[in-house]
């Protein structure tokens, strides 16, 4: 089993784990909490997480991958974790990344070496309700001089297992350069009034 752990600054309640080409499109498309792949789009190769985090809260995300085709089931973690979603997701280009609503659309690479393919996933969360309550209390008392959110109480565990299913869709050819994606995000935020 391979494991990678990153801490990401989550903004606008957007958090996804996906392949390095398509996860940026999830943010450009303003995907929000609770969405689950597959969504019918050939470009959506990301697991969209229903996060409570916002205001650049630092959220730990751990990804565990079993690349043996013999792994039929994903083992549940201890009972402090709550199941948030499960299903199948294609990863067509590597590396995997975590992605949030920040200005950097390239995401944070997960240091994992694995083959493209269709993966079974389980997404687990703990501390989400506590974090939501903490963030709401902070928003009620914050001033214009204090825009630093409290540390996140939320954390994620994503389990992946490679399946033997065939993905008929070829890996996409990048449509935009990283600079063009930054421009698209900035333009979208300007239209939405988020600066």
Q: How are the strands ordered across the major sheet?
A: 1-4-9-8-5
State the separation between the terminal residues, measured CA to CA.
Answer: 42 Å
Rg calculated over all Cα atoms = 17 Å
Largest beta-sheet characterization: 5 strands, mixed
In the predicted model, the low-confidence regions spanning at least 5 consecutive residues are 25-40
Q: How many strands in all?
A: 9
Give the class from helix and strand content and strand pairing.
alpha+beta
Mean pLDDT: 77
Share of helix, binned? 10-25%
| Number of alpha- plus pi-helical segments | 3
Note the overall shape: globular
- Relative strand content: 25-35%
What is the H/E string?
EEHEEEEEEHEH
Short description:
With 195 residues, the chain is an alpha+beta fold.
What does this protein look like?
The structure is a single chain. The protein is globular and about 55 Å long. The protein has helices at residues 23-28, 128-141, 178-192, and strands at 2-10, 15-19, 46-48, 57-66, 82-91, 96-100, 108-109, 117-126, 155-162. Residues 25-40 have low confidence and may be disordered. The protein is of the alpha+beta class and 195 residues long. The longest helix is centred in the last third of the chain and has 15 residues, at 178-192.
Indicate the topology.
Layout: E1 2-10, E2 15-19, H1 23-28, E3 46-48, E4 57-66, E5 82-91, E6 96-100, E7 108-109, E8 117-126, H2 128-141, E9 155-162, H3 178-192
Parallel strand pairs: 4-9
Antiparallel strand pairs: 1-4, 2-3, 2-6, 5-8, 6-7, 8-9
């Amino acid at each position: 089993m391979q494991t990678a752990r990153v801490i990401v600054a989550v903004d606008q309640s957007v958090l996804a784990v996906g392949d390095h080409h398509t996860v940026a499109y999830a943010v450009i498309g303003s995907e929000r909490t609770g969405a689950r792949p597959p969504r019918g789009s050939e470009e959506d190769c990301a697991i969209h997480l229903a996060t409570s985090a916002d205001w650049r809260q630092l959220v730990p995300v751990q990804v565990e991958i079993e690349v043996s085709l013999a792994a039929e089931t994903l083992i549940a973690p201890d009972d402090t974790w709550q199941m948030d979603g499960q299903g199948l997701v294609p990863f067509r280009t590597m590396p995997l990344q975590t992605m949030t609503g920040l200005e950097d659309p390239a995401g944070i690479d997960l240091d994992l070496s694995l083959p493209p393919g269709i993966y079974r996933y389980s997404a687990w969360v703990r501390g989400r309700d506590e974090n939501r309550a903490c963030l709401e209390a902070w928003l009620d008392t914050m001033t214009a001089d204090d825009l630093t959110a409290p540390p996140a109480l939320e954390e994620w565990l994503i389990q992946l297992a490679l399946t033997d299913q065939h993905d008929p869709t070829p890996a996409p050819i990048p449509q935009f350069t990283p600079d063009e994606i930054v421009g698209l995000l900035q333009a979208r935020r300007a239209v939405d009034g988020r600066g």
